[in-house]
Each structure stands twice: as structure tokens, then as C-alpha cells.
Automatic annotation (TrEMBL):
GO molecular function: oxidoreductase activity, acting on the aldehyde or oxo group of donors, NAD or NADP as acceptor
SUPFAM superfamilies: ALDH-like (SSF53720)
Annotated Aldehyde dehydrogenase domain residues: 18-470
Pfam families: Aldedh (PF00171)
Species of provenance: Sphingomonas liriopis
Record: active site: E245
Name of this chain's protein: Aldehyde dehydrogenase family protein
Domain of life: Bacteria
Annotated Gene3D superfamilies: Aldehyde Dehydrogenase, Chain A, domain 1, Aldehyde Dehydrogenase, Chain A, domain 2
Length: 475
């Protein structure tokens, strides 16, 4: 079985223990063995990134753009192949996985353009013969830590932005899904990145995380709230720049005047597709009284039609839960919801032709917003269904959460649409579309416990990956 190495200072290093990467669709399917870095290798990667940063920052924008463009072209070309790899190791359907690889290619293509786009300013003189220039420069060495649920798209939008603006990178992917991340790094490396500009250190966060956070100028993390808070506490002592994207408990409001077909389609997609393993998933369905019963009837009927199975099966609509630990978490929350008084529709562990982590989507009917299952992020195909009297109560319930990433509403009322857009306490607001799903050129991020620091993606990425310099020039 092939062993995949870490990349440090432009050299593939396999001098470390290797861990198997196993498919959640078929636990007998091992994708490969992936080297697990230790603290010493992280130190070497950090040293390489610091040594390379000065030279990389002084390359031309056109040179950086060309590398990103070449890597983007390879991702586009290999999307079916890499989509199959991603589906095998993470469990999302082949269609979704191929779409994610395409999204990564689009992100690299976008930041190739950003690399050459003007981002400075020239201010009017207020003193004779004194010019004022405002320029942006790279932050330095950026540590990037990414989650398992989007194992190529999220690394792409962090790494591409960092490189486009002249930073060097030490990248730690999720331990559960190293293969897709390895493929992305390999493509960028072969596209012509100088040694040390991009370094890959795979392995456990408990081993790799602390030395990585301690050795960088900025850290961009996407993952769980507890881990994000630990990173923040450690980084703040060194005044390290922080960008944290963490959890969500996203509301999707359905009003009496909603188009029922649209409402059910949005809820089904937002809550359950990609196995609900999206930080923007609709985990709280908040439905007003007049449409509640019809909505529940239609939604449960559509849930019963969903095809759950192996990620590579062309008929599959929802793949497996990512691993046994996440399956246990999902089942535990379903039990908690039942004990709290919910009627649970679905939520059953399933057997298929292969041994995998298959779970039917669960709808928690009769939930209240005070229940644990309605307040804590589950990160699976589990959604609370909360009945409310009217729009005002729906908005209040939607905002009554420690999170604030994504929110949605289904209505045909323009006035309710505008009011929800203004008053929803979330970074993303969706109207008559699912709460999950964002284009590559727009800012991504939330409020409250969901996010900390500047937004990701699009032109807003420069706020994190660059620092502003104001210069006065006379003569």
C-alpha cells in the first residue's frame, strides 16, 4: 500500500509513522497510508516557511498568479478522478465530491486574478510636496488548519489567498481526510512553488497543533468551537493574527405564506444533504402554525424517498457519516432528543452491502428551542422542528442561539424578506434557497460563536492575509 509523505522545504518526507485513511462507505477500503508529523517536523516546516517568505513576497504578482492558474487547470482536468478520491475518504456522493473539486479549481482561478489586482490607495496631499501611499503587504507565515467535511475546497480557499498575497504556508489538514489535501498540495507543488513556500504536516491536532500555532504570524482555522477557542487562547499571548470559523446551529424559517414545494426542497437539502455535515446546515427548522402540519407531512414523505448508501453508488443521494465516532455522536443526540420529548422520524442506523457508517436522516418533531438537541451543534443529518405562532416569534427563536453563521427564510412576502435580512443575527442570510451553499467570490463568515476575525473568500480575504502600511514620501 502506498505511503503519502509530508512536504517540508520542498522535499517529500516519509520519515514518520503512517496512519491508514479508511472509507466510511466501506471500512475494508483503505485509501492509503499517510505520514503523521511530529513536533520536530513541524519545527522544520516552520523554519522552511520563514526562510522562504522574504523571497516569495518579492516575486512578481504575475508569477504567483501563473502558479495558481496552472494548479487550477489541473484541478479542473482531474475533477472526476479527485472527486472519486474525495467521495471514498469523506463519504459525500461522487456528484457532490466532484463539485467540491471543481469549486477548489474555481477558487484557485479566482485568486490567480486577485494576485494581480490593484489593492493599494493613494491619498490626496494635505501638505505641500508630501505624497501619501497606502499599501498592503503579506502578513508572513500563515498556519492553516482545516476540517474533514470539505477536505479540498476549504484548504483551497485558505491556501490560494495566502499564496496570492505573498505569504508562505504551513498546512495541517484534518486527520480523517488527508488524501484530498495531499492531492491539492501535490498539484500546487508541481505547479512551480519554490521550496518552503507551502509545507504540509499531516497528523493529530494534539501533536501538530500547538507547535504550529506557536510558530506562525497568523493562523486560519476551521473546525469545532472547543478547538477554536483553545487555538485563540494560545495564539493571543503571542499577538498572533487569528481567523476562526467554527460551529453553527442554523435556523431555516418557514412562514405560512411560503411556497410549500420550495420550503420542503430547501429544508431537505439544507438539513440532510451531504449527511448534514456542513457548518451551514439547517439544523433548526422553525415553522409557523398555519403551514406546520402540511410541511411536516411533506417533508417526512420526501425523507422516506431518500437513497442512503455507498458514496460511489450512482443512485446514492446521501452517503455515510464520516466515521464511527461521529455516528455515535449523532445517535446519542437522537436519543437525547427522544428523552427530551421529541418524536423522532428516521434516525436509524442502516445496513448496506458494505460495512459503513450509514444513518437515515432524523427529524426531531415537537422540539423546542430550549432543548439540548436544538442548541448544540450535532454535525449530522439531524434537524429539530420547532413550531412557532408567527413571524415575530420565528425571528426571535432563530436569533436565540450562541451561533450566527447562516440563516434562511422561506416566504413570498417582500416585507418579511427585508425584515429578516436586516434583523437576522447571522453572517449569511438565505431567502428561498438552502442555508448551505455559497459562491466562491463572496465573503464567508458569521457572528457570535461561529466566527472570529476577518471574513474568508473573495476580495475580503485580503483583510486577513495582508497588513496595511501607510507611507509619507517627500521630495
Amino acid at each position: 500500500m502506498e505511503t503519502y509523505a509530508n512536504l517540508v522545504a520542498g522535499v517529500w518526507r516519509s520519515d514518520a509513522d503512517a496512519r491508514p485513511d479508511t472509507s466510511p462507505s466501506d471500512t475494508s477500503d483503505t485509501i492509503g497510508l499517510f505520514a503523521a508529523a511530529d513536533a520536530d517536523l513541524v519545527a522544520e516546516a516552520l523554519a522552511a516557511a520563514h526562510a522562504a517568505q522574504h523571497g516569495w513576497a518579492r516575486t512578481t504578482a504575475a508569477f504567483r498568479a501563473a502558479i495558481l492558474s496552472q494548479a487550477s487547470a489541473e484541478l479542473f482536468r482531474r475533477a472526476p478522478e479527485l472527486g472519486e478520491l474525495l467521495a471514498r475518504e469523506e463519504g459525500k456522493t461522487r456528484l457532490d465530491a466532484t463539485g467540491e473539486v471543481t469549486r477548489a479549481a474555481q477558487v484557485l482561478q479566482y485568486f490567480a486574478g486577485e494576485a494581480v489586482r490593484a489593492i493599494g490607495e493613494k491619498y490626496p496631499q494635505v501638505r505641500p510636496d508630501v505624497d501619501v501611499d497606502v499599501t498592503r503587504e503579506p502578513v508572513g507565515v500563515v498556519g492553516i488548519i482545516t476540517p474533514w467535511n470539505f477536505p479540498i475546497a476549504i484548504p483551497a480557499w485558505k491556501i490560494a489567498a495566502a499564496l496570492a498575497y505573498g505569504n508562505t504556508v504551513v498546512f495541517k489538514p484534518a486527520d480523517l481526510t488527508p488524501a484530498s489535501a495531499w492531492a491539492l498540495v501535490d498539484i500546487l507543488h508541481r505547479a512551480g512553488l519554490p521550496a518552503g513556500v507551502l509545507n504540509l504536516v499531516m497528523g493529530r491536532g494534539s501533536v501538530v497543533g500547538d507547535p504550529l500555532v506557536d510558530g506562525v504570524d497568523a493562523i486560519s482555522f476551521t473546525g469545532s468551537v472547543p478547538t477554536g477557542r483553545r487555538i485563540a487562547a494560545r495564539a493571543i499571548g503571542r499577538m498572533t493574527r487569528l481567523q476562526l470559523e467554527m460551529g453553527g446551529k442554523n435556523p431555516f424559517v418557514v412562514l405560512d405564506d411560503a411556497d410549500l414545494d420550495v420550503a420542503v426542497a430547501c429544508a431537505l437539502n439544507g438539513a440532510f444533504f451531504q449527511t448534514g455535515q456542513r457548518c451551514t446546515a439547517s439544523s433548526r427548522l422553525i415553522v409557523t402554525e398555519g403551514i406546520h402540519d402540511a410541511f411536516v407531512e411533506r417533508l417526512t414523505a420526501e425523507m422516506g424517498k431518500l437513497r442512503i448508501g455507498h458514496a460511489l453508488d450512482a443512485e446514492t443521494q446521501i452517503g455515510p457519516v464520516v466515521d464511527a465516532r461521529q455516528m455515535a455522536t449523532d445517535l446519542d443526540y437522537i436519543r437525547i432528543a427522544r428523552d427530551e420529548g421529541c418524536e423522532v422520524v428516521g434516525g436509524e442506523q442502516l445496513e448496506r452491502a458494505t460495512t459503513g457508517h450509514f444513518l437515515s436522516p432524523a427529524l426531531l418533531v415537537g422540539a423546542t428551542n430550549a432543548m439540548r438537541s436544538s442548541r448544540e451543534e450535532i454535525f449530522g443529518p439531524v434537524a429539530s422542528l420547532i413550531r412557532v405562532a408567527n413571524y415575530d416569534e420565528a425571528l426571535a427563536v432563530a436569533n436565540d442561539t450562541e451561533f450566527g453563521l447562516s440563516s434562511g427564510i422561506c416566504t413570498t412576502s417582500l416585507s418579511r424578506t427585508r425584515d429578516f435580512q436586516r434583523n437576522s443575527a447571522a453572517g449569511l442570510v438565505m431567502v428561498n434557497v438552502p442555508t448551505a451553499g455559497l459562491d466562491y467570490h463572496v465573503p464567508f463568515g458569521g457572528r457570535k460563536g461561529s466566527s472570529y476575525g476577518p471574513r474568508e473568500q473573495g476580495s475580503y480575504a485580503r483583510e486577513f492575509y495582508t497588513t496595511v502600511k501607510t507611507s509619507y514620501i517627500s521630495g
